[in-house]
Amino acid sequence: MVITDTYNLTEEEEKKLILREYRSLLRALKLRLKKGDKKLVRRAFEISAEAHKHMRRKSGEPYILHPLAVAKIVVEEIALGVTSVICALLHDTVEDTEVTLKEIEMEFGSTCAKIVEGLTKISNVVESKDTTQQAENFKKILLTLADDPRVILIKIADRLHNMRTLDSMSRDKQLKISSETSFLYAPLATRLGLYEIKSELEDLSLKFTEKEVYEDISQKLRETKRDRTRYINEFIKPIKDELERNQFQFEIFGRPKSISSIWNKIKTKHVTFEEVYDLFAIRIILKTQNEKEDCWKVFSIITNHYQHSLERLRDWVSAPKSNGYEALHTTVMGPEGRWVEVQIRTERMNEIAEKGLAAHWKYKDGNASQESKLDDWLKHIRELLQNPDSNAMDFIHDLKRDIFNDEIYTYTPEGDMRLLPVGATALDFAFDIHSELGKQCIGAKVNYKLVPISHVLKNADQIEIITSKKQKPNEDWLKFVVTAKAKSRIKYYLKEEKRIIAMDGKDLLFRKLDNLKISNNSSVINEICSFFKYPSPTDLYYAIAIHSFDIKDLSKMRIVGDKLLPPIDEERKEIVKEDFDHDLNKQMPGKGYELIIFGENSDKIQYKLANCCQPIPGDDVFGFVTTGEGLKIHRTNCPNAATLLANYGHRVVKAKWAKNKEISLLTGVIINGIDDVGVIHKITNVVSGELKMNMRSMSIDSKDGLFEGKIMVYVNHKEELDELSKRLEKLEGINKVTRLDSE
Ligand code: MN
Questions:
Q1: pTM above 0.85?
Q2: Class of domain 11-212
Q3: Predicted pLDDT of residue 146
């Protein structure tokens, strides 16, 4: 459904539109409707339509079209059933209207009420602005997931529809919602096996955060389509013929990779669009009962025609991923010496790959091991979430890395399989089995060979853990464990240990205060902590206990009655912090401010440019309120932007450059190319000669005939930097010019 900017339907037309959408939902659901179901769906639709009667979306359309669309996604793209459709129709009612959970329970039963309650809770935590710990909220979202996975699946459908209709939202909402989507919802969709939705979420998020990149890549994809189709047809022909001769029932086609995955390749591999060799993959979908056998037969037919790369065979048929994904992937050398990825799946595997989790339930009887794997995963999440941890942000990062990354299969001496994230060590393995085993781990035997606890495991390793009762976790362990479970257990243990030691320090301090006739209430303790710069009382007590803080130093403070205060000269002295940021006032005295901060008094605002992305005028930017250093300006494509926007959305301030050409800021580019005698001259000629730019530094590194150069220049506006990149890229021997994020 396309909604145009000018929304102007008559009441009659609107009613027709709503009914049409409702009927199309029923059609999608038709095969799943049992006796009495239709009535329930109709009732949910009526309640929702009535409740949202006077509400409209930002685009102007009647609100009810949103729950209808979400319900349709739930059926068509996630393969859920009637209960989920009812909940999708009602998902915004308790939150935004008079409808109560009690009423929903009475009409549709307790399962529906619980799911809608879960959905209401999620939307509350995501919207909340009063806490600095949005990470805590993510924890809660994951907890809901463990309660009933349908809650998160419907939430993903809701988010998908919001992303599809994000055009009509304000710019800052677009940024916040997009960042949250790429930070949380896309990884969640991946983890639940919803690959189609994951790609769409990532592409949409890119479209709003980096519009230029998105449009550039989609245009290049359009331009190269003809070439690609020709190549794919040439590649497919011999395979298709032989599959037909062998009487396989199948579909074979080439499929372009998503825009965001192409962009990721360009970024991480430092290549140009033209150099991304796998712009598409060939997919073969088999209709067969002999799933495993036939997949391998097809594999052998393909490798009869094309040479395959041994390193790039992935067998997820024998050992499915823990999100349920099954397929055989191989990369072969196609015509013209190009590597081509081929994915072989059966129809069942394909449906699971596209619709994820829910498709598993459908095939439940046929494949019980899949089901238990999912349960294992949900159990794993619960376990992690129940662990106490002081810093929720760290926790989320560990967790993301742990459950959203690629996995390896490892085995106990008894042959039980344990899935661990890539990079996991012997110590991670020990903690995965049991925290007591982890705490006492002193080494391991991997495939019968003795290794240290920091040994990084590989696929198919068999591990035997060696323990000692005398062993104790220490700080260093945190440097090489990667799983969230190991990390949080070690931190917990260290904290406990510290707390016990700190008790001695506390005794010492309280006795001293007693002698000095100073009361030991919390305001006195806080005064001491802040004067001697300890983050918490426990840290202070601990420092006293291990003698890193001499209790005699208390005499540096003043005794006033039964209180302890900082000395007078220290009281007002400001803490000078190390600061590596560009301070505009220092750099450009008397130039005033070149940035407009919307909604604030623009000429009173102090701000700094973030060092992580070094924005220059003309860049798309946002302001971020830091805790200690005031307002910082970041580029919207800053490497840290997604994390900041997704976790601290409430601290984001809209910001835009004013048209002031006076200001000049330092920025830089990285140049890659072929080493050549004249290359430095050519580059400097463009920078200083043609463009007359003010260059601060240039360095060139060359190796094996290739070079990488770094140029730092002062510019007034992004256009100048773009012009520089364009001209440099045209020089002979220069392959790629990329902007520098930070020095
Ligand atoms: Mn909604």
A1: no
A2: mainly alpha
A3: 63
